């Protein structure tokens, strides 16, 4: 399996620094974040990753389709993903309209079903636009603890139901161990997903959950997830793409990014790569 | 709908104080916690609730069936539920073996599927014991953010699959809005549950989630849940039992319990009871 670095695992690095880090550590693909690409400049980023010979495994992220002003920004995100020849544009679909991550509740809607219909409607607009530009969208189900503020799509089954009307080459799904490990149906849904898996992202789920639940992600091996069955299911489903290490973690963000990337490589080999005994014979 | 007080909503009250509070506020049923019953004395509690004419809507809780020493304590819990003539004994099934709520990870098992098999096996032992004593067990799926440390059962579908081999009068399920509101399948699963619903518990899901995720519960109306569709589904499924207000919340625990119970009654009328327009005609 090919490990990719999601840029926010080494969040203090600029795009240029992260590209350089990948080259130095022998990592062949990178998942980029739009705000960092904008800070570096889109054309400059295209040149950097091209010059380094890196694949862009994903662009993070479009989405927040439940807000009222989702359209222009998502068209821009698709254009950026096209310019970067990104493997996919990750879509975090958004929470209840008006609920803002980290902020107290103000005016908002409790209508969860209506929010989900908004997502379905927006996909109907974005999918043709992405198809015409050769961009693959990737719906990411998020852990249910983010349902109110970040994603009203909480399970892989739900993401696959939404994706079903579309060509898998246009609308795929993200399998992220952090978000899905608890789901009693996850292995069956990964098998169902098959070629629709546009991205496999790995990181661990910490216990206890830290005060900021967004930062409950940990280095593989530091949390509670058994990666073997999930990874085996992703491989059995036919996935041959890059595997992104994506960790939001305050301690890792404060650490030396080179040390974090080196540790990620070690832990990836221990917890994610198929064991020699499993690949032989 | 008949509102019941789950004792931990007014956690500073002893059993005697909570029984008295129910009587003074015109609440006809109470959900009790085993440690508080033990502090009051089981026989004394039986006398108190009997003397007050209260129903015991539930006894909280048995479970933690994934630990190695689950059996004796759960048999004791069933005996206590029988003595109290509780509507059900709530089972919180436990997390990954060795993972302790609130404590750093030590020696533990990442084998989630094995933990779930342990739950199924334990139910096979406990169900006949409960049946013989006239006690109804109630499996409670908990929010997936508690999967590691409190309950490897995270969805109503999963609880119903586990319960299927058993008589609904012996093994039911708990529908708790806090745990299930995010589930895209929850309304269909409530319909499937039908007479297996042994308890309907209500409280809101706060946003942002507070630093201690166990205390993310809030008074109905203070969080993000739309109670109407869930309550309607529970009623349509044929549930006619008590509806417990169960809120773990640091601010409410620090407040005057009488004020909390009074507010719970008001909010219950606003958010849970069918509106007059819905019950008429």
From TrEMBL, chains A, B:
Keywords: Isomerase. Gene3D superfamilies: Divalent-metal-dependent TIM barrel enzymes (3.20.20.150). GO terms for molecular function: isomerase activity. Residues 22-258 form the Xylose isomerase-like TIM barrel domain. Pfam families: AP_endonuc_2. Transmembrane segments: none annotated. The keyword Magnesium does not apply. This is Sugar phosphate isomerase/epimerase family protein. It comes from Sphaerisporangium dianthi.
């Amino acid at each position: 399996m090919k490990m990719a670095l999601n840029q926010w695992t080494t969040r203090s690095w600029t795009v240029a620094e992260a590209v350089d880090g990948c080259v130095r550590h022998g990592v062949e693909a990178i998942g980029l974040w739009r705000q960092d690409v904008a800070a570096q400049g889109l054309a400059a980023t295209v040149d950097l990753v091209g010059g380094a010979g890196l694949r862009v495994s994903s662009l993070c992220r479009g989405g927040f389709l439940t807000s009222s002003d989702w359209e222009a920004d998502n068209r821009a995100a698709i254009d950026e993903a096209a310019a970067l020849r990104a493997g996919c544009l990750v879509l975090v679909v958004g929470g209840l309209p008006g609920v803002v991550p980290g902020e107290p509740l103000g005016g908002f809607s409790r209508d969860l079903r209506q929010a989900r219909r908004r997502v379905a409607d927006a996909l109907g607009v974005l999918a043709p636009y992405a198809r015409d530009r050769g961009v693959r969208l990737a719906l990411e189900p998020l852990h249910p603890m983010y349902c109110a503020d970040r994603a009203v799509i909480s399970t892989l089954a739900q993401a696959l139901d939404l994706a079903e009307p579309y060509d898998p080459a246009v609308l795929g799904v993200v399998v992220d161990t952090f978000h899905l490990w608890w789901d009693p149906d996850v292995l069956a849904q990964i098998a169902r997903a098959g070629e629709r898996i546009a991205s496999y992202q790995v990181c661990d789920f910490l216990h206890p959950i830290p005060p900021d639940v967004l930062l409950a992600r940990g280095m593989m091996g530091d949390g509670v997830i058994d990666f073997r069955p999930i990874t085996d299911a992703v491989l059995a489903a036919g996935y041959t793409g890059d595997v992104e290490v994506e960790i939001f973690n305050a301690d890792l963000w404060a650490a030396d990014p080179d040390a974090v990337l080196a540790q990620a490589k070690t832990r990836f080999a221990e917890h994610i790569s198929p064991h020699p005994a499993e690949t032989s014979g």
